């Protein structure tokens, strides 16, 4: 009887919820136009819409200006069958995946919805690359596999480097936005586009999860701490990053940003913004390339505290409980430092490491050496690398997730990625991304490795299930699917992390004491290490 009543009620209400059948042609609301995407894939039934402009081209007078929404697509219908070009970036740091252009602010959508009224959960990806390189068209970011898990997957491009993060007083908007965070404003504009348009692709604008890795995770941390992101997303995932303070991470203060902007103008021989805008994007980009002599986590032109998009050091928002009130899934990898040059502390010899520790940590040296052993040269080298990974990624990610739970009183899930295989031999920075997206192609950080095994594919399916479960309901667990239980994070020394490795199991935070040591120095202002982030004019 109950089943019959349920079916009757369901049938009665279905016509009210029924929308238009979803095909490869989608009409956007408010007369914005029509997009023509790729037809459903025969194997996956996923529709792909690629390279849709979400903002006017940031060229001419719109270079170094807040992104302006596209009111009407041109041409109409708009061909959304190919990725748009990536934004200008440092090709010294990493080769671009395809063409680059100033006209780069495009969004991509993958959906398996059959009907526009399905309201599938939405996941919005923000790529990493130190805010200097990266693009949404990277092969390992293809969203079709995640879309098969019942979500609508969105990715987009945002401005990078000097074209995304130049700060000059002449670029400030009186009574409004200070300059320097145009790339983050692009991210906000893309999220507003999702809020306005995603229902046309079968997505739920009121169930949006923003997620990213490295600089993408740093971006999520910034968005969590920004009042401008209010109501734009409902959950957040941070993979290896969070952004924390302006002394021991790449976020810069207001003065630093203006100083670097002025130095760039002097280097280019111009004195006005008009003259600067008259130069080609290539000329400007080449004058401000990321420089391999500085640590890759610290760049000349990157997000800054602008008193608008980022009104204060992000740590302050988390510590005072004013970060966005959303559930968070976050974690870090065992060997984050694999990609980074060790610049935290000299370590060529055991004696040099210990002497440097004494200079840097003074009365805390003994405690420091308890956590970062330098008894042998091998240990000194490993400890220097561990310190890099902790300062750049691990400890700040932990602080963010811990404060979101303990101060903001939100639901948090924490992970520790340790998995290795012949395909993915080190649990390095970025190593988890291919598994999250289900795209187990070549990983450039490892060079040539054997192809993925059945075990690799099994892990990938498990991670996709966890990530999409969280996007759907704010909880990665699905008992019916037989997944190992992921415990909710709580402060303290309990089994509050999930280790994702050869085995998937609940663990205590393996670095808790080490993190508490760093945190105590950070919060009392005595953490002695400052990353190199000076403007480099070589």
UniProtKB/TrEMBL annotation:
InterPro entries: AB_hydrolase_fold, CarbesteraseB, Carboxylesterase_B_AS, Type-B_Carboxylest/Lipase
GO molecular function, one term: hydrolase activity
A Pfam family matched in the record: COesterase
Tagged with keyword Hydrolase: yes
Keyword tags: Hydrolase, Signal
Enzyme kind, highest EC tier: hydrolase
EC number: 3.1.1.-
Domain Carboxylesterase type B stretches: 25-508
Signal peptide coordinates: 1-19
PANTHER family: CARBOXYLESTERASE
Family as reported in the entry's similarity comment: Belongs to the type-B carboxylesterase/lipase family.
Protein name, entry field: Carboxylic ester hydrolase
